Amino acid sequence: MVVKPQNLLVIMSDEHNPKITGYAGHPIVGTPALDALAARGTRFTAAYTPSPICVPARASLATGLPVHRHHAWDNAIAYDRNIEGWAHALRKRGHHVAAIGKLHYRGHPDEDYGFTESLLAMHITAGVGDVTHLVRADDIRDAEVRPDPRPRNSRRSHVAPQCARPPRSASRREARGSCRPVLP
Question: 20 to 30 A from 180, CA-CA: which of 34, 45, 158, 173?
Fold first, then answer.
């Protein structure tokens, strides 16, 4: 059996309230392009972010790791490709992986982020992000990493969403609860 190639589109926006879209039922806001994508694809309505700020959240999306594992702690320390992510894995398997727009990675020209091509890429300026709002005495990158004091079996190091696509006949309310994080 030959598997038909499929496209995967990931849209990540900063500070975007998903309720302010047409497909979510907003009575005034019109989002016809997003509505068309939502009608043909899978929406994650119970998703969460590993960080409330842009750069660490994007590093977590790239690597699949929580912030304390990839060490892009804030908007000053960006993803630097030292941990390979999903783009690397897809490209190694022969997929064309394109990034368009804001990535907010470190952005050094010699760094390989796993993309076959990158169009209109926006990275943090000169490899160093916003340092004006940092309040800390020492540089976190030079800090000693202390072991987790909790017993190993009580740690929750990864939360993986397990989603089932709702049947087309499902109501919007039924579909809303179809993707929930599951702890290992």
Answer: 34
